[in-house]
TrEMBL record:
Listed name of the protein: Transcriptional regulator MraZ
UniProt-listed InterPro entries: MraZ (IPR003444), MraZ_C (IPR035644), MraZ_dom (IPR020603), MraZ_N (IPR035642), MraZ_sf (IPR038619), SpoVT-AbrB_dom (IPR007159), SpoVT-AbrB_sf (IPR037914)
Taxonomic source organism: Geobacter soli
Keywords linked to the UniProt accession: Cell cycle, Cell division, Cytoplasm, DNA-binding, Repeat, Transcription, Transcription regulation
HAMAP family, A to Z: MraZ
Single GO term (MF): transcription cis-regulatory region binding
Intracellular or extracellular location(s): Cytoplasm, Nucleoid
Family per similarity comment: Belongs to the MraZ family.
């Protein structure tokens, strides 16, 4: 399981370092140093504004996602096309070099507004990548969306 928030930077060419802890989990838990990086689902910030980061899936989890998506029902044709164009089509298979460095392609950097200060955030079976500025906007929206019913929160064990 990926957990934690790691602050780092990305250079103008899109080079950054995947946190060592996350690299260890990829190999030790998932048995593969390969991963897939793609856009995350857009987060509605209200007032017509949206924010988006990136997602990193262990390679096997990405394959599971694609298989599940192929067989899923309940989405309209427009929703399926939107997911394909937003998340599946831009996906890139990667692996970090021996020093943990990776290159995030320009089309993904641009969509996630990654310019300098970024965050790697462990979210159970995947990793989110955010610009610090965009993540702060999403964090504020998350506080608004957080369940206010104490029973609901207690059911989760919090």
């Amino acid at each position: 399981m990926f957990r934690g928030i790691y602050e780092t930077t990305i250079d103008a060419k899109g080079r950054t370092s995947l946190p060592a802890k996350f690299r260890e989990i990829l190999v030790d838990v998932h048995g593969d140093d390969r991963f897939v990086i793609t856009n995350s689902a857009p987060v509605d910030l209200g007032g017509g504004a949206f924010s988006s980061g990136l997602l990193i899936f262990p390679y096997a989890k990405w394959v599971e996602f694609e298989e599940h998506f192929r067989s899923s029902r309940g989405l309209s044709s427009a929703q399926r096309n939107s997911i394909m164009r937003t998340i599946i089509s831009p996906a890139v298979e990667c692996c970090a070099d021996k020093l943990g460095r990776l290159l995030i392609p320009p089309h993904l950097r641009k969509g996630a507004a990654l310019e300098r200060d970024i965050l790697f955030i462990g979210v159970m079976d995947k990793i989110e990548v955010w610009s610090q500025a965009e993540r702060e906007k999403v964090r504020i929206q998350d506080l608004k969306n957080f369940p206010s019913d104490s029973e609901t929160v207690a059911e989760l064990g919090l």
